[in-house]
Design brief:
- There is one protein chain.
- By secondary structure, the chain is of the alpha+beta class.
- It has 2 helices and 6 strands, in the order βαββββαβ.
- β3 and β4 form a beta hairpin.
- The radius of gyration is 17 Å and the shape is flat.
- The two termini are 20 Å apart.
């Protein structure tokens, strides 16, 4: 099995009414339930939209520094993610498609690098 990250940037969501969002929530939850029932669920969750509440940890200078706010100023930021553990890319595409249809906005899919054996 291979783990895939299915995610979206908050900016891909677009402007919609509260009613529209309320209608999407149950659809998205149903897909997550379907992923669980299929036995391929690893994790799913949405992130808070207030990017100002983010903080960064950086040790590249040799000294660990924490900074309030995102690591870099950017127009795009992660809005939510799902991780599935599926047999192949075809299955990852299928779940990404179901999530995209339920949410009403695009999803990007990336495969996790294989992990070496644990000792």
């Amino acid at each position: 099995m291979t783990e895939y990250l299915i995610y979206f940037n908050q900016q891909w969501v677009g402007d919609h009414t509260e009613e529209w969002f309320r209608g999407r929530g149950p659809l998205a939850r149903a897909v997550v339930d379907e992923i669980r029932d299929a036995g391929v669920y690893v994790y799913a969750g949405g992130l808070e939209e207030e990017v100002e509440t983010a903080f960064s940890a950086d040790a590249t200078s040799g000294t660990l520094t924490f900074t309030d706010g995102p690591f870099i100023e950017t127009k795009e930021y992660l809005g939510g993610l799902t991780i599935v553990d599926v047999p192949d890319e075809e299955a990852a595409r299928m779940w990404a498609g179901k999530i995209a249809e339920a949410c009403g906005w695009p999803q990007e899919v990336r495969r996790f690098k294989p992990q070496g054996p644990t000792q």
